[in-house]
Amino acid sequence: METIIGIDLGTSTTEVAVIRNGKPEIILNFDGEKVTPSVVGIDDSGNILVGESALARQIIAPEQTVIEIKRKMGLNERVHLGKTIFTPEQISAQILSYVKRFVGEYMEEDITKAVISVPAYFDEIQRQATVEAGRQAGFSVERIINEPTAAALSYGLSHLDEESHILVYDFGGGTFDVTLLEMFGGVLEVKASNGDNQLGGKDFDQKLIDFLVERFEEKNGVDLRKDIYAMTRLKSEAIKCKIALSSNEQSEIIIPMIANKDGKPLALEETITRTQFEELISELVERTHEPIDIVLNDSGVSEKDLDMILLVGGSTRVPIIKEDIAQYLGKEPVQAIDPDYAVAEGAAIQAGILSGALDGDDSIVITDVNPYTLGIRALSYDDFDYMSVIIPRNTTIPVTKKELYYTSWDNQTSALIEVFQGESSTASHNHCLGTFHIEGIPSRRAGLEKIEVSFSYNLNGMLNVEAYIPSTGNAAEITIDMLNQNDKKEQRIDVSNWKKSPLAPDFRPLVRRCEKWLSSGKIAEEDLEYVQDCLYSLKKAIIEEDLENAEWYENEIHELMEE
C-alpha cells in the first residue's frame, strides 16, 4: 500500500497529515512544528528559504520574500523574489518541495503522492495551477479536494452514524468558502458550494493597517506607504494585534523608530479596541452573507433545517464572526474540529480512502459537486456568444448530461464545439477549457440537422465532451483532465491594430521601447515569455480601451525594463 499524504496549502500557513492506525496525524516540519508559514524567500547567497526562516527574514528583507501567493494562483502574473521572476506555481512548488522533504524525513520514506486541498470556489484554472505546483515539487496529485469538504470529512470520520445537514463556514487567511453537506449512513454528500476567493483574514489585517497608516499620517504628516520596510513591520504588528483582540478587549501597538522626519525618529503608538477593530471589518464580515444565501438557495435547504454550522479556518477565531453568523442564521455555530488542522486532516482522510488505508467500517463515502457551470458556446437568436448550460453549478458529480442543438446556417457541414466554465451568460466572459470539431453533418437547410452534445464529469476531475450527429452516427469528442490540463493559455485575439485605439497615443512610446527590447536578445530566457505576455496583454487592453488594465501592464513592463 503506497502512502498518500493530505496537504492543506493555505494562504498564510500549510499543514500536512497522513492516516495512521485509522486516524489522521499531523506531520511535523523540520522545526518540529505542525504549522508551516506559506512564505518563500531568499538569503544573501541566493538560497531559497521556506517557512519560519523565510518569515523571520521578511522584516529585514521584504523585497526578498513572497507571502500570500495562493491569491495569485492561476493568474497570468509573476512575482519578484530578489532579481528573479517567478510564476505563482513556482513559488507554491517551493513550499510543496519543502513539504516533500520534511514529510520524507518524518516518515522515513520518499512520499510522491498527495491529495491537495483548494478553496471550493477555485475555478479549474486555479485548480490546474495547484496541480502544476505539486508536479513541479515532485508529487503526483491524486486528487484535489475542496477545503470545506475536507473539513467536513475531519468531523464526519468520528460521527459516521449521524444524519444531519452541516453548513461548513470556512474563513481562512486568503479565501472564504461556504458549503452545505448532508451526512447520512456513512455518506457525506455535498449539496452546494460558493465563496469569495478575494476575502480572508489578510483583508482584516489590511483594514487595520490602513487605519494605522492614516492615523500616523494625521499625527506626523508622514505617509508610511512609501516605505516598504515600515509597512512590513506594521503588517507584522497588525497581525499580532488582530490575534490579541480575539481574547482581549484592547491591544497596544508600539513600533519605535518606524520613520524619520526632519532627521528625528518617529514612533507609532496606538491602542486598538475590539470595538474599533470590529467596526473596521464589519463590511468584510457582511460579504459572507451572499455566498451563504446562494448555497442555501442552490441546495433547497433553509436555515431552520441546518443541524450544525461548522466553523473552519483561523479567521473564525475573530469573535465577530461567530456573533454575526449566529445572528444571521439564528443558530450558534460550533468549532467541533480544530480550525487550523481540520482541512489537512480531511485531505489525509481522502488520501487514506484512495490508498486503501481507510476502508470498511472506518471509511466514509463522499459525493461532491462542480462549483462552476459547464457549457458550450451556441447561437441564441442573434447572440453568437451565448453560454448554453449543460451542467449547472452545484450538480452532484459524477454526472452525465446531454443537450440537443441544431445547425445554425444553411448547408452547414461541420461545427466547432467550444467548452466553457463560468457563470456569465456570455461564453467569452468564462474560461474556455477546450475545443474540437465535428465533421460530416449532412448539407441541409439551417435547423434541420441535430447535434447532440453530452458532458460526463467524474470524481477524478475528468470531463468527457462528445458531439454526436443522430442522422449519420458521426461523433467526435474531447476529454479534458480538469486537474492536469497542459494548455492553460488564453485564446488570443489579433492585437496588431492596437494603434487605432484612442488609448494608443498614451502607450505608444512604451510599446516601441518594449518591442525594441524584445528584439535585442538581451532578455533572460526564463523571463522572455512573461515579457511577451505582458506586451500582448497591454495591446489587448489598449484595443479594449481598458485603461485600468493597460496602466497595470504599463507599470509591470516599466519595472521589468528597469531591472
> By CATH's scheme, which homologous superfamily of the largest domain applies?
ATPase, nucleotide binding domain
* Overall pLDDT metric: 89
The name of the CATH architecture of the largest domain is: 2-Layer Sandwich
Q: Report, as a whole number of angstroms, the end-to-end distance.
A: 50 Å
| Dominant shape | globular
User: How much of the residues is beta strand, in percent?
Assistant: 25-35%
How many domains, as an integer?
Answer: 4
Low-confidence stretches: 486-490
Q: Please identify the structural class as seen in this structure.
A: alpha+beta
Supply Rg.
Answer: 26 Å
Number of strands: 27
What is the makeup of the main sheet?
6 strands, mixed
Which topology of the largest domain does CATH recognise?
A: Nucleotidyltransferase, domain 5
Helical residue percent? 25-40%
How many helical stretches?
A: 13
Can you tell me about this structure?
Helix content is 33%, strand content 31%. The protein is α+β, with helices and mostly antiparallel strands and 563 residues long. It has four domains: 4-198 and 307-369, ATPase, nucleotide binding domain (Nucleotidyltransferase, domain 5, 2-Layer Sandwich), CATH 3.30.420; 201-282, ATPase, substrate binding domain, subdomain 4 (Actin, Chain A, domain 4, Alpha-Beta Complex); 374-481, Substrate Binding Domain Of DNAk, Chain A, domain 1 (Sandwich), CATH 2.60.34.10; 498-562. The strands form seven sheets. Strands 1, 2, 3, 4, 10 and 11 form a six-stranded mixed sheet that branches. Strands 17-12-13-14-18-21 form a six-stranded mixed sheet.
